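I'd like us to work through together how a protein chain folds, taking it slowly. To get us started, please write out a protein record for me. Go ahead whenever you are ready, and we will take it from there:
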Amino acid sequence: MAEWEAVIGLETHIQLSTESKIFCRCRADSWGQPPNTNICPVCCGLPGVLPVLNRGVVEKAVRLAAAVHATIAETSYFARKNYFYPDLPKGYQISQYDEPLARGGYFDLPLPGGATRRLTIQKLHLEEDAGKTKLAGGQRYVDMNRCGVPLVEMVTGPDLRSADEAAQYLIRLRQLLRWLETSEANMERAQLRCDANVSIRPAGAIHLNPKTEIKNVNSIEAVRDAIAKEIQRQVREVESGGQVEAWTLEWDEDAGMLRKMRAKETEGDYRYFREPDLLPIRLDEAWRTRLLATMPELPLERRARFVREYQLPEYDAEILTEERSLSEYFEAAARAYSGEAKRVSNWMMNDVLRLVREHPQQAGQPQTAALAGLTPAHLAEILTLVDSATVTLATGKALLEKVIATGTPPRAIVEREGLAQISGAGALEDICRQAIAENPEQATQYRAGKTTLLQWFVGQVMKKSRGKANPQETAHILEKLLVG
C-alpha cells in the first residue's frame, strides 16, 4: 500500500478593518444589521455609478504585504472578474488579476518540535466582497450588505502537508492580522475566510493528483476537519481504482461532511479584463517609506527577542506575544520593575491573565482592555511591595483586583486600607498567643507529635490578621510558642 502525502495550498480572504467599504462610503462592518440596510447605489452596482478607491484599504494591504516579505508593485491594476451569482449585483467582481498589489512573499510557520516550514506567498490582491445568500423556508434570499466590503486575498503555494499545519497557519495568520491592526480576523463573522486546495501524491513524488477546492468553512477547527476528511476521501478514491475529480466542495458544518458544489472553474471562465472605471494604483516611494516606517516589530521577531533579551522560556515568550498589546504590556512592566523579568512573566501568566479571562472584553478589543485600571507601572509596584515584604504575597495578589477596579496606585490602597504586612516579634507574637489560647485541643495534639498542625495555626493567625501576618515569621514564632 502506497504511503500518501497531502499537498495543500490556502487562499485566504481577509476583511480589512476600515471604516468604509472599498469603493463607497457605506460602513464596512455590517455584522448584526438587518439584511440590505448597509448599501448604496455603488455597492449595489446600479447603472451609471462610479467606484472611488478607499486609500485606507491600500495602506492596510501594503502593511500586510510588507509583513509577509512580498514585493510590493509600484503600479497595480484592478480587473473585472465575470461570473453570475445572485449575490453579485453587477455580474462581475472588481478584483485584481495579472498585476496585483504584491507578489513573491513568504510566511514562516513554527511547527511542533522547533522546526519551521516556510510557505511561499504567491500573491496578494485587493478585491471587493460579494453579498451572500440564505436558504429559508424553501426560498433563497439575497443580502447585499457585504457587497463592496474590502478584502485582501492572499494565496499560498502548495506548501502545507497536513490538516494540522493548515490550522496552525490560520492561527498564526490571524495573530499577524490582529497584530498589524489589518483585520479583526474573526472567522465566525466572515472577516477571515479560507478556501483550501487539496491534492495527494505518493510520498516524495512530483506528480500530483487533480486538486479539489473546499469552500464555506467558518472556523479554524472546521478547516482542520474538512481538509482531513478530504485527504482521507481522496486516498480511498485512488486506492479503490478511481480518480479524483477537480470539484469545488462545500463544507456542511452541521453534518460535518463535504458536498459537491460544482465543477471547479478555471481562470479562463472568469474572462478577466481591466476595470475601466478605476485608475491604476501607483505607490510612490516617499509614501511607501512613510507608511512602512510605522511597522511594528513582528510577532515571531518579538518572541525571539523576549527569549534573548529577557531570558524568558520559549513557552512564556509564546504566551506573551500572542497579542501585540499583551507583549507591550509585559515589556513596559518588565522595564518598570527592578527585579527579574521572569517574575513579571510569572505574575502575568498565572494571575493577570486569569483576571483578563474573568473580565471578558468586547469583540475587537485587545486583552489588555480588561486591565485599564492596572497599568504596567502598577503591576511593577505590586511586585516591589511583595519583594520588600511590605505586603504578603496573598495581599499582593488581592491588590491586582483592587487596582483594576479603581485605578488607584497600589501603595495608596495599602496605606488607606492598612494592608501593610505585620512583622516583628511584638505585634505578631500577641496574635500567635491568641491563636494558641483559642485552640487548646490542637495545641495539645501538636505537642503530642502532630506537627503538621503548625500550618493550620499559621492559617488561624492569617485569618486573625486579615492576611497581613508575615507567614514565615508567623511559623517561626508559633513553633517556639507551641514547643514552650
The mean pLDDT is 90. The two ends are 80 Å apart (CA to CA). The CA atoms of residues 95 and 127 lie 4 Å apart. The chain has three domains: 4-290, 299-417, 425-483.
